[in-house]
């Protein structure tokens, strides 16, 4: 999940829509820009300095993430409207049991260095990312594949202990087999219906042969297979990209050059946008969203969109005080989410009312009964739970803008339940995260979740299943685990969604965490851009840009 | 003079070692595992953290870390950042930018500040004096980010006179606005100090003598009065270069300048000791050398001061 630590609040993502040009002076009936202007056109968009070398399986933050998204095309891709994934590089992904997948890729597509994309480019890339000693940040995405445990070993006493992770038995996962140049077979450890959906996530991108000889050099000058080719990267200044003319998977980019200008301060970027020096800003600064200033500044160049991000406050269920579901439900019911999104976020975010973000396929709006505001019921439940003694801390990382809404939540709990609730800022995200990882939280804490791939599975398995990669509160309900397992292994996506819906009902009874708001994004573009779309995660879809 | 200079230069060595160690220890003491927060709310896989911890020797004691940092430093290698960038590159690109900005700021504050100071010092309580008094009060009272945002919006967005942010070429014409913002507070102080100093020396015996001798006013002010009144101003200006470079974080952010402020801020937040120390070490050297230069300038301005 790619929520940058600095901008997890601002990070937004969008249901896509097309913008029809407003300032189209020629008055032609076309739905977009002028093909001539677009052909050699160049745009400047805002970005942040990537925190890591640009290797797909090692990029988890937004600065590098969007570059990766443009440079690579995976087996499947997620449509801008947030719907179900479609085949992109894959010709077909066939399975009879959701366990063995036969993947056929389209022949004769090229990497930017001119080499052909072959089946082994996938297999080798996945094996590299999963191999423990490579230390890839996205290694856990390959855990579904048979043989993952042979290539990825856990450190017996955690990374802080003196022992080291033992050398893995194997270098390659036994579940991956190259059949021929355009076909490979993936065997999973257990049936996983959502596996084909995951394949559009950046960790699953193919890598050219040159990567394996020198991963470090590749990270500075990545070679992808997407519609956009890497040109240069000057640290802290800009990243230059250009159209890949041999791209043949779908529409080529209509404009030619894209410069991602690296900003340190989003207000500086916004002023550049207003002055016409910047063509697109993905997230308008908070200062400009207050009082809807950005809408009057930008007029119809302002784009408001919703994003598959949910702001959550989680409970440390390993702490005795939080083990009573009635107490957790009481706290959740005492929060007036509507008031928080209206007053703190000026209506730019929406009050959460379901466990999975409603933009996600398989999610059901309104299925979080604990997300209602019902102070009477909350008081009753608190009494039944035997009250709450001591101070209830709500921690957040103070290096991003979370203070206001966390304090508002604390105040509501205090007013509506009489619990001594207090919002506590932890100076940096690193310390905050370290305490969460070590299960040392003594009160509720801020969490956030942005989907990695559009399926309800991504909102349940990592967060609410025992041992899930982000189940930091150690919530555990055997019934939920059983249902989620059944759902993951279902023969079809529809069936899987039905079973997940049942699991969500149980989660809703237990209230392991409290969804508070759904993300929203406020973007803006220059007068130069006549037509553009946002991707399913709110990034500018640069193949759609017309000038 | 030569011996004095040598002594001062030798003093730099313990100061250099002391500051590097202090800063290294301070950053080392900042709590938090730098690799725990790198992967967003999901948290980083243990293997990633283990690999990075080993690569950057974070499991070693501070003595081992500091010793290996110093060893590389003496070979001219500042180390690499957590994202694998050589710190030498960062210093080579960001220092010239910040220096350029600071020099522009210094020039603006020297010219305007001194000009206003001389004008008001010679004619106290006039209209100019009151105007400068009020406007300097205004500059001192306003935080630099307010001045920065307001001027950026007025000149960059509303009137379109300049670009709101500075391009990568760092042209001098683009730096005038950020330079003014950065130097604004110091400019006000310089104007006030110069005014007081001039006003005081205006009544000194040697000035009265010079006027009585029938020297033209320009010469009285330009040679006798100004030269003797400059010592406090030079002290302020000299130490200000270091302060401007170190204090440019906000201005650099507002105007999108790729300078050391951004790098230090990022490195402190991500607990990147090597980067913080490397940048600050160079800054410390700037301070020390500027101080030395100021001391030498005293002798040039006032012949009564001799170093031996």
Main attributes of the structure:
heterodimer, A: 547 residues, alpha+beta, Dipeptide-binding Protein, domain 1, Dipeptide-binding Protein, domain 3, 2 domains, 7-stranded mixed β-sheet, 4-stranded mixed β-sheet, 18 helices, disordered N terminus, B: 308 residues, mainly alpha, MetI-like fold, 12 helices, 75% helix, 0% strand, globular, MetI-like_sf (chain B)
Describe this structure in words.
- The complex is a heterodimer of chains A (547) and B (308).
- Chain A has 547 residues and is an alpha+beta fold.
- Helix content of chain A is 28%, strand content 21%.
- Chain A has 2 domains: 41-228 and 245-252, Dipeptide-binding Protein, domain 1 (Alpha-Beta Complex); 308-520, Dipeptide-binding Protein, Domain 3 (Dipeptide-binding Protein, domain 3, Roll).
- Chain A contains 18 helices and 19 strands.
- Mean pLDDT of chain A is 88; it is low at 1-31.
- Chain B is mainly alpha-helical.
- Chain B has a domain at 95-258: MetI-like fold.
- Chain B is 75% helix and 0% strand.
- In chain B, helix 6 (144-158) crosses helix 7 (172-202) and helix 11 packs antiparallel against helix 12.
- The model of chain B has no long low-confidence stretch (mean pLDDT 87).
- Chains A and B meet through helix 8, helix 15 and strand 16 of A and helix 2, helix 4, helix 6, helix 10 and helix 11 of B.
Compact description:
The complex is a heterodimer of chains A (547) and B (308). By secondary structure, chain A is of the alpha+beta class. Chain A has helices at 35-39, 62-71, 119-130, 148-151, 195-198, 209-213, 215-220, 266-274, 286-289, 293-298, 325-333, 337-343, 375-384, 403-417, 429-437, 457-464, 478-488, 493-510; strands spanning 42-47, 76-77, 86-87, 90-95, 100-105, 176-180, 183-187, 228-234, 238-243, 257-262, 280-281, 302-314, 350-351, 391-397, 420-426, 444-450, 513-525, 531-534, 540-546.
């Amino acid at each position: 999940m790619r929520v940058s630590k600095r901008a997890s609040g601002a990070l937004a993502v969008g249901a896509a829509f097309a913008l029809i040009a407003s300032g189209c002076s020629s008055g032609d009936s076309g739905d977009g820009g002028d093909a001539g202007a677009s052909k050699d056109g160049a745009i400047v968009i805002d970005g942040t300095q990537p925190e890591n070398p640009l290797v797909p399986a090692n990029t988890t933050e937004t600065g590098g993430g969007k570059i990766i998204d443009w440079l690579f095309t995976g087996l499947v891709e997620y449509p801008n409207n947030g719907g179900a994934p479609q085949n992109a590089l894959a010709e077909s992904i066939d399975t009879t049991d959701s366990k063995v997948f036969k993947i056929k890729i389209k022949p004769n597509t090229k990497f930017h260095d001119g080499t052909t994309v072959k089946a082994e480019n996938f297999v080798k890339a996945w094996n590299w990312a999963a191999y423990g000693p490579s230390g890839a940040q996205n290694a856990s995405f390959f855990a579904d594949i048979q043989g993952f445990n042979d290539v990825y070993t856990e450190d017996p006493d955690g990374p802080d202990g003196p022992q080291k992770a033992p050398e893995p038995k194997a270098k390659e996962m036994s579940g991956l087999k190259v059949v021929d140049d355009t076909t490979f077979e993936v065997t999973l450890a257990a049936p996983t219906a959502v596996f084909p959906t995951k394949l559009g996530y950046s960790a699953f991108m193919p890598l050219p042969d040159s990567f394996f000889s020198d991963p470090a050099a590749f990270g500075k000058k990545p070679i992808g297979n997407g519609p956009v080719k890497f040109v240069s990267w000057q640290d802290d200044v800009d990243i230059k990209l250009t159209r890949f003319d041999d791209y043949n998977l779908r529409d080529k980019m209509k404009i030619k050059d894209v410069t991602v200008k690296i900003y340190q301060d989003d207000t500086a970027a916004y002023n550049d946008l207003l002055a016409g020096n910047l063509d697109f800003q993905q997230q308008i600064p908070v200062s400009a969203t207050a009082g809807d200033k950005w809408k009057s500044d930008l007029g119809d160049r302002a784009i408001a969109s919703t994003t598959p991000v949910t702001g959550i406050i989680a409970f440390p269920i390993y702490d005795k005080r939080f083990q009573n579901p009635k107490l957790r439900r009481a706290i959740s019911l005492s929060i007036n989410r509507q008031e928080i999104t209206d007053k703190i976020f000026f209506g730019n975010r929406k009050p959460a009312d379901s466990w999975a973000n409603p933009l996600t396929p398989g999610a059901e709006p309104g299925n979080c009964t604990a997300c209602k505001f019902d102070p009477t019921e909350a008081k009753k439940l608190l009494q039944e739970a035997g009250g709450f003694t001591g101070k209830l801390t709500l921690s957040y990382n103070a290096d991003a803008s979370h203070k206001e809404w966390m304090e508002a939540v604390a105040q509501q709990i205090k007013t509506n339940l009489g619990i001594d609730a207090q919002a506590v800022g932890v100076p940096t995200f690193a310390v905050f995260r370290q305490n969460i990882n070590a299960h040392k939280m003594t009160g509720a804490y801020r969490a956030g979740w942005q989907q990695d791939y559009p399926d309800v599975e991504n909102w349940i398995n990592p967060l609410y299943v025992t041992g899930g990669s982000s189940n930091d509160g150690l919530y555990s309900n055997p019934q939920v685990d059983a249902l989620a397992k059944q759902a993951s292994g279902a023969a079809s996506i529809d069936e899987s969604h039905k079973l997940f819906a049942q699991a969500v009902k149980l989660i809703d009874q237990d209230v392991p965490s409290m969804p508070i708001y759904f993300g929203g994004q406020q973007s803006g573009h220059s007068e130069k851009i006549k037509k553009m779309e946002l991707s399913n995660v709110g990034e500018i879809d640069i193949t759609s840009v017309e000038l | 003079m030569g011996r004095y200079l040598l002594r001062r230069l030798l003093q730099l060595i313990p100061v250099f070692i002391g500051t590097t160690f202090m800063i290294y220890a301070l950053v080392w003491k900042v709590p938090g595992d730098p690799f725990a927060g790198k992967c967003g709310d999901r948290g980083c896989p243990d293997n990633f953290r283990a690999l990075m911890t080993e690569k950057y020797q974070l499991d070693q004691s501070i003595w081992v870390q500091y010793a290996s940092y110093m060893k590389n430093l003496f070979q001219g290698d500042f180390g690499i950042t957590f994202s694998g960038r050589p710190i030498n590159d960062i210093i080579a690109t960001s220092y010239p930018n910040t220096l350029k900005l600071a020099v522009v700021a210094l020039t603006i504050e020297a010219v305007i500040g001194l000009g206003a100071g001389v004008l008001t010092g010679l004619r106290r309580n006039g209209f100019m004096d009151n105007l400068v008094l009020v406007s300097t009060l205004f500059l001192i009272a306003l935080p630099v980010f307010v001045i920065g945002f307001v001027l950026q919006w007025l000149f960059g967005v509303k009137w379109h006179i300049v670009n709101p942010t500075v391009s990568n070429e760092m042209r001098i014409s683009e730096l005038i606005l950020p330079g003014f913002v950065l130097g604004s507070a110091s400019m006000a102080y310089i104007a006030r100090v110069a005014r007081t100093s001039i006003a005081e020396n205006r009544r000194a015996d040697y000035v009265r003598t010079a006027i009585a001798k029938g020297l033209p006013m320009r010469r009285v002010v330009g040679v006798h009065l100004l030269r003797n009144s400059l010592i406090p101003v030079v002290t302020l200006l000299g130490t200000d270069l270091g302060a401007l470079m170190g204090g440019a974080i906000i201005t650099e952010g507002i105007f999108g300048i790729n300078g050391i402020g951004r790098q230090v801020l990022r490195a402190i937040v991500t607990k990147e000791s090597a980067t913080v120390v490397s940048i600050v070490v160079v800054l410390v050297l700037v301070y020390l050398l500027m101080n030395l230069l100021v001391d030498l300038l005293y002798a040039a301005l006032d012949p009564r001061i001799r170093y031996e």
